[in-house]
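Q: Give me the 3D complex with 2-acetamido-2-deoxy-beta-D-glucopyranose.
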Amino acid sequence: MEISKPHLCLLLLNSLVFVLLSAADDAQLSHGYNCSSDRSIYPCKSYAFYLAGAESSLLDLASIGDLFGVSRLMIARATNISSPTAALSYGQTLLIPLLCSCISNHSYSPVDYQIRAGDTYYLVSTFQFSNLTSYPAVEDANPLLVPTNLTIGVMVTFPIFCQCPKNRSQFIITYVLQPSDSYASIASRFGSDVQTLIDLNGREGSVQPYSTILIPVSRIPPYSMSSSAPPPSRKRHLNGAVVGLSIALGVMGLFWVVLLLQISRLKKRCSWTRKTDKELGEKKIGGSSEQKPIMDISEWLDRYKLYKIEELREATADFDSNCLICGSVYRGEIGREVYAIKKMKWNAADELKILQKVNHTNLVKLEGFCIDPEPGNCCLVYEYVSNGSLHSWLHGHSRRPHKLDWRSRLRIALDLAHGLQYIHEHTLPRVVHKDIKSSNVLLDSRLRAKIANFGLARSGHNAVTTHIVGTQGYVSPEYITDGIVSTKMDVFAYGVVMLELLTGREAVTEEGRMLWVEAEGWGKGEKLEEWMDEALAVAEEECPVESLVMAMKIAKACLQREPGKRPTMVEVVYALAKADDMSADFSGEGMSVGASGRVVAR
Ligand SMILES: *[C@@H]1O[C@H](CO)[C@@H](O)[C@H](O)[C@H]1NC(C)=O
Ligand SMILES: *[C@@H]1O[C@H](CO)[C@@H](O)[C@H](O)[C@H]1NC(C)=O
Ligand SMILES: *[C@@H]1O[C@H](CO)[C@@H](O)[C@H](O)[C@H]1NC(C)=O
Ligand SMILES: *[C@@H]1O[C@H](CO)[C@@H](O)[C@H](O)[C@H]1NC(C)=O
Ligand SMILES: *[C@@H]1O[C@H](CO)[C@@H](O)[C@H](O)[C@H]1NC(C)=O
Ligand SMILES: *[C@@H]1O[C@H](CO)[C@@H](O)[C@H](O)[C@H]1NC(C)=O
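A: Here is the predicted complex, encoded as structure tokens.
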């Protein structure tokens, strides 16, 4: 075929325009950073440099923490702010700790953001996230959403740019270049040097103002660089390990903590879960390792909704058995929203004031409460998690539309690990859930997992002896024999849930054998058919063997009989994120369950 001259010309012109356009695109609109070819450096901890109050309205740690899915204590620690509740000054600089991952060949930290009226990818990236991401990158990270047609309430993953250092003793700070900056000024501010910045980011003029640059640092410098006087500080010891643990993975762990502590205090009063001295002693030991600031809770007192008992009666048809979900939890419709309403014996009105609105994606959220003065009842109103428990998905009698595929299961394992990491790492004294099991893991409409029943639902039937609570098949050996309570018992139970995810079998078999005891006999991973869930084998092409084997290794590490040998939840999160990367690489479709829960149900 012959192409006429004008035609050819047009073609050339077209491609020229295309080239020009894409060049402009590349110069101004960053799609973020590619992963380094060495994938073993992911995930890692990294930091984003954030200016409080800069063109966004966020001027307090709590809402900035909410935005990034980080507890404010973690930001306060990384930034060396002594009082997390103090108001921030305008333009105060903050370091936001992030978990940097490689997701479909892009290096970023996925932050979930719920769309509100008026939001666009551009506005949220530019203002709320202060250019730490860009709208083209948001589009890349959310292939299933139409950017021009965002519904209010939809969850969008904002990929906060980050990178992992090749040198493991360093951290990389993501910094948004300001018009007044030069490499020299940045280098001196962060204790880096100009050549390093050029090596990592290209020559000085090539980076547009308001795009990100990467600054490697060998330690987190003291950033008491607020524009005004630093807030008065209490003397406090910060050690590297604490900072190291401050990895960003969720929101407002602290409020949850306050809630949990309150609940455990209340439970102490109830006769059916009286704590032994041993337990209390253990908790003290766990908590005395470091000093943390005491929470000023007064500012949160009004965050809860107080319901009237009549309202809840109406919602549940006077606590009709038809509305019963399980235990003493009822499904109730208030207004047009559905809630899970838990009824309990309790007469502690003033204690309730301290319960705080929790907003961590992997913990079932408390919406409000109600006190019924007459019989001294109390109702807690939770978000309704629509897809039921993991137990029913894995072991239910085929009422589910489909079996969970491997990536959904991995995502659930990660969600659960994130939730547990929160309660373990951000509490003082440390809070232990004590009843992790697949029926306490609820799945929402996107099959994202949320931990439920924080000790609340543990009613009498589990209290085998005066102090042993928990569920058969999940309780750790040291707890059964010695009544020892520690975060490692949750790690153990978590290992059992992982086994359920891998094998599709129940924690206790019909013959009464423990799944975890059986797992001890399983080979070193070569013989997958020994344990792998048949439902996974069916869809083998979606189920990378390495990822499965790695997950089994993690499960078995959690199930060691010696509690000291079990990993912490932080370590589990890291290891799992790697298994997740493997599964994403394997599928080759350029999406990761780690990035968003959207990939799940097919
Ligand atoms: C990232 O990778 C893509 C494709 O592999 C390439 O086109 C692009 O130039 C890379 N970007 C950077 C900043 O290296
Ligand atoms: C991922 O990014 C790296 C770095 O730019 C590049 O070398 C590699 O080809 C990319 N891989 C894929 C699968 O796009
Ligand atoms: C982000 O960048 C845009 C220009 O691309 C700029 O107008 C805006 O002020 C920046 N946002 C912040 C918070 O600095
Ligand atoms: C926008 O999204 C809504 C709900 O997601 C859908 O019903 C509607 O058809 C979409 N509109 C367009 C123009 O895509
Ligand atoms: C890694 O970073 C540390 C601290 O900055 C430095 O002392 C060390 O020499 C670096 N190692 C390499 C291989 O660059
Ligand atoms: C943290 O800030 C205090 C004063 O606010 C200062 O004395 C201390 O040295 C700082 N710590 C670090 C690790 O920079």
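A quick observation: The chain has three domains: 26-233, 293-383, 390-601.
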